[in-house]
Amino acid sequence: MTGVVVFESVGALAAGPWIYAVVAVSVLLDVFLPVLPSGVLVITAGTAAAAGSGAATGRVPHEVPDILALILSAATASVLGDLVAYRLAWRGGERLDRAIARSRRLTSAQERLGEALARGGGALVVLARFAPAGRSVVSFCAGAAHRRARDFLPWSALAGLSWAAYSVALGYYGAQWLGATWLATGVSVAALFAAGAAAGYVMRRRPVS
């Protein structure tokens, strides 16, 4: 009962516009600080919104536009964060190039990203959005390698939208299936981490075309 009361309270607050700003700022900044729990925040907001819409009790949700706004705010912030990191890396000059050259992981990521974008495929960008710190590596490497924005940003937009929709859906359907409880949020967060681990494994084990 306590968990339900908590999420009902958060759900009422989530109806206000401030929740979108908090989510957007967190998602935008985590390209620079991957330790920020932006995914957990998005899931919690989705769970709270689902509770407020009646999804957790089986009623027809009447606040679906709030869910869509949450997805759009998270996705937009994700793309903007990628773009800022991309532009900073583009102007980083020789110091950033030397920093990347000293890291075998960053050098490999830069090479693979360049090959993927050159072939017109950006699956690596989408996968990296789910992998831990993958978004940061890809955004900075794309800018440092001076990849064209028109090759990178469309895939960044797809990656941001996919990640945001997946995260919000986890929170929303977690509340619908398990109720507005901390258990629902915990299961949803675990599913997000599992997707990140799977994305990281795929990126390490097979080439991306």
TrEMBL record:
InterPro entries in the cross-refs: DedA-like, VTT_dom
Localization per Swiss-Prot or TrEMBL: Cell membrane
Keyword annotations: Cell membrane, Membrane, Transmembrane, Transmembrane helix
Membrane topology category: Multi-pass membrane protein
Domain VTT, residue spans: 37-172
Transmembrane feature ranges: 12-33, 40-61, 67-89, 152-174, 180-203
Protein name: VTT domain-containing protein
Source organism: Streptomyces rameus
